[in-house]
Amino acid sequence: VQLVESGGGLVQPGGSLRLSCAASGRTFSWYYMGWFRQAPGKEREFVSSITLSGSATLYADSVKGRFTISRDNAKDTVYLQMNRLKPEDTAVYYCACRPGATGLYDYWGQGTQVTVSS
Asked: How far from the centroid of its chain's Cα atoms is residue 60's Cα?
C-alpha cells in the first residue's frame, strides 16, 4: 500500500486545516487507518484511528473534541479535520494503515508538515 499525505501548512493558532491521505496499491477498505504525528525532538505519537467502515473512531486526549477523522472508501482516502489548532499541534503528521484492528501499522506515508504559529 502506498500512502500520500497532503494538506499541511502554516496556520495561526485557532485556525483549521484538513489533512488528506490517499492510498493506492491495495483495497483501501480492507485497512484500518490511523494518523500519527512527530514534533521536533519528540517521539512519534498516536493522534487518531478509524475502523474499516468508519463506524468507530479513536482519539488521543490531546486532540479530542478538536480533530475529526473520517474516510471515504470510494476515494481511497482518509482525512483529518483539525480545528482550534494550537502551537503544540505543530508536527509532521503521518497516516498509516494495518490489516487488523490491533497490532503494528504496516504501511506509512511520507508525512506532511503542520505548523501552528502567529
From this structure: 12
